[in-house]
Write a structure and sequence with these properties.
The complex is a heterodimer of chains A (239) and B (361).
Chain A (H helix, E strand, L loop, with lengths): L1 E12 L2 E12 L3 E5 L6 H9 L6 E6 L2 E2 L5 H6 L2 E3 L12 H9 L6 H14 L15 H13 L5 E5 L7 H16 L3 E5 L3 H7 L2 E6 L2 E6 L1 H5 L2 H12 L1
Parallel strand pairs in A: 3-8, 3-9, 6-7, 7-8
Antiparallel strand pairs in A: 1-2, 1-4, 4-5, 9-10
Helix pairs in contact in A: 3-4, 3-5, 4-5
Chain B lengths: L12 H24 L3 H26 L8 H18 L3 H23 L4 H21 L1 H4 L5 E2 L6 E3 L2 E4 L5 H22 L2 H11 L1 H6 L4 H27 L1 E2 L1 H5 L1 H14 L6 H17 L2 H8 L8 H12 L1 H15 L3 H17 L1
Antiparallel strand pairs in B: 1-4, 2-3
Classes of the chains: A alpha/beta (239), B mainly alpha (361).
The complex binds adenosine-5'-diphosphate and magnesium ion.
């Protein structure tokens, strides 16, 4: 069963097609990797899916509902949550308050929200930092805070935009384990990631974008053995 | 080591626990003040202070918490002032009914402002908010039949406040205004406290910190910005009505002018934006400052040293020009505070005290 269907989605900025006729489906409970060189249109596709942009053409179907034209807050309420490539902490609020803002998506009670938020902070092992200001955190913890905050909105589909960007080896490993843990809880994920080893390890399927178009799609093995992918993407990033 | 930049925001537990007691003591002192001090000028100063706090708290909700820097709050202040005064003067409707009408008018203005301005972000929002208030001021100037135009409205008499035929108070002294002002201060602080400790407060602050992040976490931006503006407009309108009845005269520049809008913002910027006590601190700085400058305190101080005689040529020159320079001096002091205390006086003091604590441990 597909939880998300992308049907012939195009997004134009003036004359530039940041996404051109992209189609694929994401199976319920799976992890879909999304890779491609810088400027391939990965973030733009996330923006089209989550309501930040309305696709110029095509359709986004989530749990059978057409999402085109819905505002991001509606999209979140319907069970889709995203992180930002460039993290967006609510800087002058505490770590706990940041996650509570996410939790308040599902409850009106501050007490309930505080409980959900503490739970999620424990999941990312940041409960010890609950009272700190979000703006003062180092990058590794900002990324984890972002994860805790979206998890607190109780999503069914999570879109992670380069959550390992700028992290060191052990921090990345922590995020990988977190992603696998989220999967074990039945939450579907789309993951944009540059590191091939990581994306091979966590993805059930991978979509490759180049210059806005879908180059290919398949299991990690199929994708790495695809000559076009090697030429267009692997060749570039390994040179 | 990078961690030290992340401040522990709940680190002032000792201060917190003393807060209710301090608040009660201050309130008791303020309640007794008119029985101890009868000088009309002292009461007048306190009433001006209250008015300033009420205005600051009102703006703080939409500007400080929700981060929407309206520089057009004169619109709501003027809406309250004009509605209450017009109802009292033209239709003989007592001000304690008039204030409700004033609040209703302010909400209508807020809905118009919201529908125009909240499509815009950052500096565009600021400019649009100024524009709406200016339109209101110019309309009031020109709708002479309704508003008396530039001549303004003078309150001839305020009917005494009666409940069930019994006279509670007449308004022959400043004392009733003192207590009404104090009551409104408490009201605005309580409203701010309730907002801060509710879902609304969390959502307002999230919008202030990062609109896009807030949007993606399920927050309806337009709805919440409008709620913040409406609450703020209601309270600002109360401040306007209070001002009008207390002073007894209004005209378009004094209640709808751009300087009122700027004044309201400054109270919060000076004290500390988005904090409950910021507007209180800001008012404690600004009201005495502007009163001192208005009464030409600098010239008086120079004469007091005996260096210059007030009757000499230089003395007369100083007296005249320092009186006119008060807006300039005020402006320079405000700029100095903004430059050196970006989080306001309150934020500055907090920073000093947390640094000290850090050094000790
Ligand atoms: N808001 C925008 N306006 C104009 N061009 C944009 C906008 N957003 C993205 N683009 C362009 O679309 C292309 C794809 O960008 P993006 O989706 O960020 O790529 P990726 O995330 O794969 O690195 C780039 O050429 C980028 O410059
Ligand atoms: Mg990107």
């Amino acid at each position: 069963m597909a939880i998300l269907e992308i049907k012939n989605v195009s997004k134009f900025f003036g004359g530039l097609a940041a996404n051109a006729d992209v189609s694929f489906e994401v199976a319920q409970g799976s992890i879909m990797g999304l890779i491609g060189p810088n400027g391939a249109g990965k973030t733009t596709l996330f923006n089209c899916i989550t309501g930040y942009y309305e696709p110029s053409r095509g359709e986004v179907i989530f749990k059978g509902n057409r999402m085109n034209g819905l505002q991001p807050d509606r999209v979140c309420k319907l069970g889709m949550a995203r992180t930002w490539q460039k993290v967006r902490p609510l800087a002058k609020m505490s770590v706990l308050d940041n996650v509570m803002v996410g939790a308040l998506c599902r409850t009106n009670s501050l007490k309930a929200a505080r409980e959900i938020a503490m739970e999620q902070l424990q999941v990312v092992r940041m409960d010890g930092k609950a009272a700190f200001l979000a703006g003062g955190l180092p990058i590794g913890e900002r990324k984890k805070l972002e994860m805790a905050r979206v998890l607190a909105t109780k999503p069914e589909l999570l879109l992670l935009d380069e959550v390992m960007g700028g992290l060191n080896q052990s921090e990345s490993e922590e995020i990988v384990l977190l992603i696998l843990d989220i999967k074990s809880r039945g939450i579907t994920q789309m993951v944009i990631e540059h590191d091939m080893k990581t994306i091979m390890r966590i993805s059930d399927r991978i979509v490759v974008l180049t210059s806005g178009e879908k180059l290919t799609e398949g299991t990690p093995q199929e994708v790495v053995s695809n000559q076009a992918v090697i030429d267009a993407y692997l060749g570039e990033s390994h040179s | 080591m990078k961690d030290t930049s992340a401040k522990n925001v709940h680190g002032k537990a000792g201060f917190k626990s003393a807060e209710p007691i301090v608040t009660l003591l201050v309130l008791a002192g303020l309640a007794l003040f008119p029985t101890l001090v009868s000088s009309p000028y002292s009461l007048h100063l306190m009433i001006l202070l209250f008015l300033s706090i009420i205005m600051g708290q009102s703006w703080n909700i939409v500007g400080g918490y929700a981060g929407q820097y309206s520089v057009g709050h004169a619109a709501y202040f003027g809406a309250g002032a004009y509605t209450t005064m017009l109802l009292m003067q033209q239709w003989k409707i007592a001000p304690w009914y008039g204030v409700w009408a004033g609040m209703a008018v302010a909400v209508v203005v807020a809905l118009v402002v919201g529908s125009i301005c909240f499509r815009l972000r950052g500096p565009y929002f600021v400019l649009a908010s100024i524009a709406v208030a200016e339109i209101l001021r110019l309309s009031t100037m020109n709708l002479k039949d309704l508003t008396n135009g530039a001549e303004g409205i003078l309150a001839t008499e305020i009917p005494p406040l009666t409940i069930a035929g019994k006279v509670i108070t007449d308004f022959s002294t400043k004392v009733p205004f003192y207590y009404i002002g104090l009551g409104l201060v408490v009201l605005t602080i309580v409203v701010t406290f309730l907002v801060q400790h509710s879902k609304l407060g969390y959502y307002f602050q999230a919008i202030r910190e990062d609109q896009d992040a807030a949007h993606s976490l399920g927050i309806n931006l337009t709805f919440h910005k409008n709620i913040a503006l409406i609450v703020s407009a209601l309270l600002t309108s109360l401040a306007g009505s209070f001002y009008a009845i207390y002073i007894g005269f209004i005209d378009p520049p004094t209640v709808l002018g751009l300087d009122i809008s700027v004044q309201i913002v400054l109270i919060c910027i000076i004290g500390g934006i988005g904090t409950i006590y910021g507007p209180v601190v800001g008012s404690l700085v600004l009201v005495p400052l502007s009163e001192a400058l208005r009464s030409n305190i600098i010239a008086e101080a120079i004469f007091a040293t005996g260096a210059v005689s007030p009757t000499s040529g230089v003395g007369v020159f100083l007296k005249e020009n320092l009186a006119h320079a008060h807006a300039l001096i005020y402006g320079v002091l405000v700029v100095v505070v903004i430059l050196f205390m970006p989080d306001g006086v309150l934020g500055f003091v907090r920073k000093l005290t947390t640094k000290r604590k850090g050094e000790r441990s």
